[in-house]
Amino acid sequence: MEQQYFAEKTAYQRKDDFNAEEFYSRAGIWAEFGKIVCISVGYFSPQQDPRGFRLKTFKGEEPDLLKNLKH
């Protein structure tokens, strides 16, 4: 099914003599075919003076990452 979506999305880039399989190696840069590998969250810490900026990065397998992030 994903290859069909990719073929439809890349149709404007391909000439008649190319097929979707030749473009599949570039699919990862398109949101529809990409994979979440990390999520970073930035926030200001009001406990610091002056107020500091904190950054937290979460990593892992995509399904676990998304499930655990909401908790």
Instruction: Return the average pLDDT rounded to an integer.
Output: 78
Quantity of strands, as a count: 2
Which stretches of 5+ consecutive residues score pLDDT under 50?
none
- Structure annotation, total helices: 3
Task: Describe the model.
- This protein is α+β, with helices and mostly antiparallel strands and 71 residues long.
- It folds into 2 domains: 1-34, no CATH class; 38-69, no CATH class.
- The protein is built from 3 helices and 2 strands; from the N terminus they run H-H-E-E-H.
- It has helices at 2-10, 20-23, 62-69, and strands spanning 38-45, 52-59.
- A two-stranded antiparallel sheet has the order 1-2.
- A hairpin with a 6-residue loop joins strand 1 and strand 2 (52-59).
- The longest helix has 9 residues, at 2-10.
Key attributes of the depicted protein:
alpha+beta, 71 residues, 3 helices, two-stranded antiparallel sheet, 2 domains
What's the layout of helices and strands?
Layout: H1 2-10, H2 20-23, E1 38-45, E2 52-59, H3 62-69
Antiparallel strand pairs: 1-2
Quick recap:
Helices cover 30% and strands 23% of the residues. It is α+β, with helices and mostly antiparallel strands. A two-stranded antiparallel sheet has the order 1-2.
